Structure prediction request, 331 residues.
Amino acid sequence: MERILINNQGKTKARNIVEKIEKGLFDLSHVENLLIILRSFSGGNKIFREVADLVAHNDERDRGIVNESLEAAYLSMRFLNDYTLAGKGIDLTQPFPLYVKKHMGYQIDRCVEGKLQSEFKLTKERLKTRLNKLFKDNRVNQTTVLNDKISRETLLALNYICSFIRSEYAFNGDQLIKEIINVLRENQIVHTENAIQQQAEKINICIMALLHNTNFKLSGNSGRCAIACENSPLMMHNLGTNENGQNIAVPAEALTHGILSIHGEFLQTVSGVDVTWVFPIFTANHVTEKWCEQNIFRKEQEIVGNHTITFQIADFKGDIILNDNFKLELC
Prediction:
């Protein structure tokens, strides 16, 4: 199918925004508008299209890279709860939940190719093909069952992919900036790559603000994306010992909340208890303290022995805006 490129009117609009970005004279709305203008003309740049779709339709997404990453995490936890922690196995010759097959497909994507080849003489593509051919699905009952003979190597491979949980970022800031530049070049929109790269940090913090509180529809559940940081709460003092072996509070100014990211999260009931699982989705290596206003942080205290320990919490709950200084702050 021949690719559709943006028309001259759209190209002019995009170019005007790009000029502002290159000069550093832009804000979140410029990034948002650029994504929306170029959304339908992004070609094979899947990360760009994903982010543009999320910006355009952030009410509740049921498809795309981020949705797949979040759903893969959810199905991993569901399988862990239903089978691993429950000490249950799966009889492939009897109908079992269809989500397990979908979980297997996601797990294949997260396998190390070399591991499959060396241990089971299978590639990811070949194992996925076998997974789809070997089982007969019942969409009405949401079950599946083995419908053909299965080789020993395939059975061992399926056992292996159900034996681990691996989470990784769906994409990162460098990949996104690369695809923004790709879309501009492919649509013949005049731009200066180095100038855009120099604004990468600001562009990516805009993306974080735009993706915050995005909702997703999963298989039998729902989830959301939100801004988070590596370390919170952060203990502002370490407990140490003096020369007499007594506990003392030692200032720890070097401690940091770490890197900002977009996390996916969903609620699941485990052994009768509601648990919120959190998984990484997107990061661009922004240091939390540098890119957040002070109203993001609050302090709480706790008594430990004879000492009062202060904790600092980075609070990203609720509505967050990106101000004129490209810092996140609570409304």
About this structure: Residues 213-330 form one domain. The longest strand covers residues 273-287. The mean pLDDT is 89.
